[in-house]
Amino acid sequence: LNELDKYIEEYKTLFDKGTRRQNNIVYTQKYKRLWYLKKKFADRKVLAPHNELTEITSEVKRLQKDIRTMSSVELMDSSFKRIQYVRYADDFLIGIIGSKQDAEEVKKDLTAFLKNKLNLELSSEKTLITHGKMKARFLGYDVTISNLQAVYKGSNSRIAKRYASNKCEIYMPKEKWIGKLKELKVLKIEKDSSWKSIHRAELINSDNLEILSIYNSEIRGLYNYYKLAKNVHSLQKFRYIMKFSMVKTFANKYKLSVSKIMKKFNHEGNFRISYTTKTGQKHRYFYNEPLKRVYENPTTNKEIDIVPNTMIYAGRNSLIRRLQASKCEWCQTENTAIEMHHVKKLKELKGKQLWERIMIARNRKTLALCKKCHVDLHAGRLD
Fold it and tell me: What is the C-alpha to C-alpha distance for residues 103 and 83, in angstroms, rounded to an integer?
């Protein structure tokens, strides 16, 4: 679609018009009147009668309220037009400062270009003309134009300032993180519309570190994608459901209550898994970093929009699926014949060998091995 980029770039040179919007006459008049009244009040607050000062104060407040709802420039100035374009793969968004007629004309020209030059059809159902105050969906974000009328005072200032209005803002759609919960099968919506977190049966036979790592990866992945959104803090609810789904998964694994699991893995108020490596004991915590908005994206990671691969934390648990994987769980050899090593009871394993400790940690009585590794295991050479 490089041709489309070049076309829009040329189109922009013809479409853009004017250097700046004209001043809003009504706004200017009210602002001048406000300035005059403030000066009059300052000059006469000692000598003027009380009722006159009250009238001035009342009018000042009314003018300030009016000004906060107005723009200092003409938003629909026909002498000022702009077009902005952004594209990712085959998904693009065009922003226009102009009339609806201008937007319809751009859509018409774009449709003709794609059909005549690139032999592509522009979907009329998906290509919508949306007012700036409404939300347009782009790359999973909702894009809109702010219309704030609130004011604020700086920490070291007594002067009230208006928040920047008519600025582009991006939001995380609520249905995106709810849809993710449903996709992961960790959320159940009851008949009374109440929410209930549920365990993930497919993870019960994974070891503790795998379970925790999978949940952390899924939370971190969604946050990393939506951390530019103004309402990214809404992911607190997503994390809450994920946390209790994880706790219930551990509860099902250990046949304990949720409260006992929380007590078992609690460390200073945080959920923690401890594990041992060659360098000693280590700990990993449930993802508890602030889910705050990032105003500028500093990342240079080219894989930022790739869905997290949670399979690196958990092997295939189903016997059939592990056989179908044709991958040895010990030496990681792929596309080889797989044999299953079975033990009758996990409690019979002493944990002296590494493969025994792996089976104990995963709470699994089977191990998928290639023929060589299986022979080495029975010969005592696997470690």
Answer: 10
The crossing angle, in degrees rounded to 10, of helices 208-226 and 174-183 is 160
* Dist CA 278 CA 94 (whole Å): 55
Tokens encoding 36: 């005059």
Read off the tokens for 235: 């992911």
Q: Which pTM value belongs to this model?
A: 0.71
Over residues 116-166, the pLDDT tens digits come to: 998 988 887 788 899 888 899 999 999 998 876 666 666 666 666 666 667
